[in-house]
Specification:
six-stranded parallel beta sheet, three-stranded antiparallel beta sheet, Deoxyhypusine Synthase
Length: about 300
């Protein structure tokens, strides 16, 4: 038997907020609009459920791509409980917290001219080498201030980032807000970043060690005590896998939204549909989830503003 659900057409006269637009997308119900509308509904469930442990997973250049204040906003207002991210997003947050910035690359610029100007390129974003030099200096100063016990008794990466965040004086920084609000930042790939490189170079002069296994113990305790779990997953890679994998401890995510540009044909996790996670016990059988195909720097702000708009 076929159950027909009529496609409802968006009426501009009925749209007065992003919240209304999200509802209109859900009523359309098909194609990208339907996916976006269902994603808004799922994120609202996460935000409104006080018993839901909500992850924000981030891969790709999202902080230099303009999402820094949205992430810190979500942390400050307790919409998210856990952040899982690449080391690069932490680095680019710190660059701005230490007075640096990110810039648009003009059409006249070439990679050769950028290199000679002391600039590095990420897509059409550029960063000054001198801002990375400031990052190195500030990180070294922070490490110098740690006790021998802190450096050598195996701080976890999340504890390291918490203590570093507390030294910042920038309320727009998600590293700062996470430290102040008690939202742990898990970065399993921290060493694959400039911050990780600075930790390595510092270790050639003074001993320091981070306990990455300890971070999984910290997260495991949070997951086991949670009544429900939800995740907003931006991009794929290690951040997506670490997020979903950690919820195996309670049978998988209850709620999940994924925004990705990756394709599934190659079999990599980045492009894998969330439904695939059911077989791995990373998504619960009765879970509510949706994938939105597109650029997270466009879609994520729309989803968030529609989810919190009345």
């Amino acid at each position: 038997m076929c159950f027909l659900h009529r496609v409802h057409h968006i009426d501009p006269a009925e749209i007065s907020s992003l919240g209304d637009l999200g509802e209109a997308f859900r009523a359309v119900g098909v194609l990208g609009a339907g996916r976006l509308g269902r994603a808004v509904s799922i994120i609202r469930q996460m935000f409104e459920d006080e018993d839901c442990l909500t992850y924000l997973a981030m891969s790709g250049p999202l902080i230099p791509g303009g999402l820094r204040r949205i992430v810190s906003y979500l942390v400050e207002r307790h919409y998210v409980d856990v952040i899982v991210t690449s080391g690069a997003n932490v680095v680019h947050d710190l660059i701005e917290a230490f007075g640096g910035a990110h810039y648009r690359v003009t059409h006249e610029s070439t990679d050769v001219s950028l290199r000679h100007s002391g600039m590095g390129r990420i897509g059409d974003i550029s960063v000054r080498e001198k801002d990375f030099e400031t990052l190195e200096k500030k990180v070294y100063e922070f490490l110098d201030g740690l006790t021998i016990q802190q450096r050598n008794n195996g701080m976890s990466p999340s504890e390291f980032l918490r203590d570093l965040g507390l030294t910042l004086n920038d309320p727009t920084s998600f590293v700062y807000q996470s430290a102040v609000c008690g939202v742990p930042i898990f970065s399993p790939g921290l060493m694959d970043s400039m911050l990780g490189f600075h930790l390595f170079t510092y270790s050639t002069m003074t001993s320091i060690s981070l306990d990455f296994v300890k971070d999984l113990r910290i997260l495991a305790e949070m997951v086991r005590s949670a009544k429900r779990t939800g995740a907003i997953i931006l991009g794929g890679g290690l951040s997506k896998h670490f997020t979903m994998g950690s919820t195996i401890l309670r049978g998988g995510l209850d709620l999940a939204v994924q925004i990705t540009l990756d394709r599934p044909e190659g079999g990599s996790l980045s492009g894998a549909p969330l439904a695939e996670g059911i077989s791995w016990q990373k998504i619960r059988e009765d879970s509510n989830f949706e994938t939105v195909i597109g650029d997270a720097t466009i879609i994520f702000p729309i989803l968030i503003m529609a989810s919190i708009s009345s």
